[in-house]
Amino acid sequence: MQLIRQHKTWLNNLLVPVLSIVFGFIFGAILMVAFGYNPIIAYDAMISGVFASPYFIGEALRQATALTFTGLGFALAFKAGFFNIGIAGQALVGWVSAIWFALSFPDLPRILLVTLSLGVGAIIGALWASIAGFLRAYFGTSEVIVTIMLNYTALQLTNFLIRDVLSESGNTTESVGENASLSIGWLSTLTQSSRLNLGFFIAMAVVILYWIFMTRTTAGFEIRAVGLNPHASTYAGMSAEKNIILSMFLSGALAGLGGAIHGLGTFGNIFTQGGLPDIGFNGIAVALLGLSNPIGIFFSSILFGVLDIGAGFMPNRAGVPDEMADIVTSAIIFFVGANYIIRYFVDKRAAKKEAASSTKGGDV
Amino acid sequence: MNALDIIQLIVSSSLIYAAPLILTALGGTFSERSGVVNIGLEGIMVMGAFMSAVFNIQFAAAFGGWTPWIGLIAGGLIGVLFSIIHAVATINLRADHIISGTVINLAAPAIGVFLTRAIFGAAQTGPLPESFGRTNIFLLDRIPIIGPIFFENTSGPAYFGIILAVVAWFVLFKTRFGLRLRSVGEHPHAAETLGIKVYVMKYSGVLLSGLLGGMGGAIQAQAISNEFGILTIAGQGFIAMAAMIFGKWNPLGVMGAAIFFGFAQSLARIGTYIPIIQDIPAIWLLVMPYLLTILVLVGVIGRAEAPARLGTTYIKSR
Predict the structure, then answer these.
(1) Which end of chain A is least crowded, N or C, by CB within 10 Å?
(2) Cβ contacts (< 8 Å) between B290 and chain A: which residues?
(3) What is the pTM (predicted TM-score) of this model?
């Protein structure tokens, strides 16, 4: 009986994201019809555009790689009860510092240079996020506003570094050498020289490590406990300050690592940015859709990777501006956030079938 | 440049940059006083900026010099429409306030640029035909010394914002509506037992924030960037929220804080004309508004009193 009930809760939890995706696409379709576009052609262009060629499948998975990291980063802080809206800024500082390191030490052996560059990106991202964690822990400052302010600071600072330090008032840095490349020969061949790279496997490994850390270690348990009930955890002898800073540090490390992999793997350089990188805010969307579960985040990031790459096909094949993909994404997250309406109907149906059945609310 | 010119320049450009912040921060004050966190103000500003830009381009010929002011109303109305999403999600559908706000911030630039492409075929609108420009405040500009500094060649929308701040203060603290709005933010259960319609009050707070945030965005588009594009609104909504906290949710304090942040923002543009400041590297002036916001929040938070039930969902008793 217990097992059946658990199974049902799990199924209901899965129902929220799945229905949210469906509603999100329906909302996008309604908007397209309202503006005189054909949604079927648009969605078909998006899906068939990606899945028709190994190259675009590779590109979608490459995009998913970065989103997995930023999604896990947001989820970790979210589990501890914090909104790390600064994922984008942390990814950006991770990106620029990894490139900076790789350009500074081009002659190190490949395995060392790749590891150190990614490590530097992760640490700088972690330290950047820790500022917000520290201020929250010791001054009670809202991490939401601080991380947003740090986002814009990171953007200006990065553009300054690119123009005045990493190049001679240019808009782009040199490309990193062969020894800092993340590309894998057979993977590129398999996907018709897409930019899919080693980062994809690192992402899968980190998904597993994240799951082990959160569910099988004391530190992970403390982070979740503080998120569930800070007062009870403090009473039980856990340090709230320590856990706030630790969770922001790890969250920023994941975002910074994502930025570093995005930078080294996708571009191999960095150029002045007009706005914060998309992987930040889309990472938040990935985490919310994945209900902060690492496996959920992995599959959500693949969905958003496909949406992101597929969006590129909409202007030419369907005449629909590619911002449509972002609108669908936000609609999906709206339904995830407002899941009360979905749960309300699901619970009502469940209650009808089995009067005694009790379903538990999810995390989001 | 003599001293008077420099002071005039600092005051007028601070006011120009402060105007969108004043209105948006006042909007945030209404929303948070009713207990709803609205970080979607950034997105609401984007929609207000978009709407006013479209209006400005379409109707400049018909309304002439009044176009920006009517565009301001258009921006406010679209802000109200957009804030309904936030109200429904947080009040009725029990969504987390931050998640709902984030959704608005994700959706608004996408919808704004989508519609701009659908209407103009490009991601930016291009320059607007009628901007707010600079105005002299009637009669006050004739006062010696003070007149030229504060009321000559200055920002009309900023003075509109200052007047609104006084009105907002009166509404919040001296009217029955204000008392009810605040009571809902402090203790909704108690308010409900007194017969106050909690949901109606919360809706009023959020919709007012939409109106004022949309107007703030309209000022940003029509007075500062003079076009609509993805970069028209870059963090002003969040800075306005910081101004709201700095001003302790009191409209007059909020207005003062917004002018302070307007000053910080303007320095990056006018810094080169001002002695001492012109020697500071440009990068510092660019990041200063953001760093100042953080410093102010760190300094002020111990003393700031947020509405007691801010950010929590109220479930109506049956």
Answers:
(1) N
(2) 149-150, 152-153, 156
(3) 0.88
